[in-house]
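Example 4.3 (complexes with small molecules)
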Amino acid sequence: MEIFDVGVIGGGVIGCSVLFDLTSAGYNCVLLEKNEHLVSESSAGNSGMLHTGYDAPLGSVELTCIKRSLTKIVKVFEKLGVPFRQNGSTMVAWEDHQVQELFNIQEESKRKGYSNVHILTASELFQSEPYLNRSAKGALWIPGEMILDPWLASISFAHHARLNGAKIRTSCEVLSCKRELFDAWSLHTTHGDIHCRVVVNCAGLQGDLVDKMAGYQDFSIAPRKGQFIVFGSKTSNLINSSIIPIPSTTSKGIITFKTVYDNIITGPTAEDVPSRSIPRPEPLIRERLMESACNTVPSLMDYNIIGEYTGVRPATQYKDYQIRSHQDRKWITVGGIRSTGVSACLGISSHVCDLVHDLGLDPSRGPSSHIERINWTILPGKAAIHDECVYHMTHPIAKYGTSKNSML
Ligand SMILES: Cc1cc2nc3c(=O)[nH]c(=O)nc-3n(C[C@H](O)[C@H](O)[C@H](O)COP(=O)(O)OP(=O)(O)OC[C@H]3O[C@@H](n4cnc5c(N)ncnc54)[C@H](O)[C@@H]3O)c2cc1C
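Answer. The structure with flavin-adenine dinucleotide bound is encoded below.
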């Protein structure tokens, strides 16, 4: 009977990055994903932006993880060959009274250590974003924000771990779990029983339900939907940076941004929904998004959308991430990674490595910090293949971006 060092439940961006870092640290890991494909729930419906944490509260676990992630993510992406671009974000004041807000956010950003954030007058703004609606009053330039292919990033983390010896089981749902007498967890799954010394619960929208299997009830998931519309890459010259509004206390608001494949996307909305499953796009919201896109960049009126998608955030009753180590039973929960999981992923995984180390678990293999570039064979709109492993393209940013009709 094989006993893994660590069992990671969930193959979204968080599970994949945790698997990547733990395997590199020498832990013998297995990742269990209930769906047929990795990256098929929250992580398949996001904006694919690396945020600096401009709206994350000072002192929060979220901000700490984002900052920690950003110190290493660029190097890791360069080594793995994940497409990304530092194109910055332009936070626009659309009303006179919002200009003061920009100064407040600039001050707050400086307190968070981002001294390069600065105010643009309306004329400076129109020089950098000539197609923006002329009613804009000014902006805050946040140069550190980036865009990436969030799907290729996640599967590259998972595949690199696999090449380093990690096991990945898909269509493998954890149904129940038990802490056995011999100091290991027995995870009862749809693929039989898996044994591991430590469990890391990265189950996203089911994070609270998986925690409950182990007897923990520290938070409840409150799903929050987001919807997007996608334009073809012919629109790409209409913006240079991600155009973001002033955030509210609950949402970053509707953004008009360009992907690494040059599609312009507008979204996401933020709606509390009763179901944890990924819903279909709604026509009324599509209209609202189209209106928002054309209000931001009027020339978008001349183009049709080529697609749309939705995502659901694993929000909870708390604003901050819910990351906890239950030391006595060697169970780590990485829950409620609401709206910045892609940005914070490698900070979260470093934090999880520290927590596993603090449990006194020594890696059963030698560490391997060497990161190899993955030379993927990409089937446009469909899949990425390497070393006989086929990863189905689940994220619309990758699907629309690599497929032929993305030019429309
Ligand atoms: C609309 C929207 C926009 C966003 N925009 C951004 C952005 O621009 N930048 C950013 O940084 N973040 C963004 N996010 C947030 C980011 O997408 C999330 O923080 C992240 O995807 C959460 O990842 P996860 O791995 O925790 O969850 P998931 O991706 O949901 O992964 C959890 C996995 O666990 C699996 N699972 C659950 N239960 C079990 C079980 N019992 N057994 C086995 N497997 C199980 C699920 O099938 C799932 O695949 C956005 C999110 C949304 C929805």
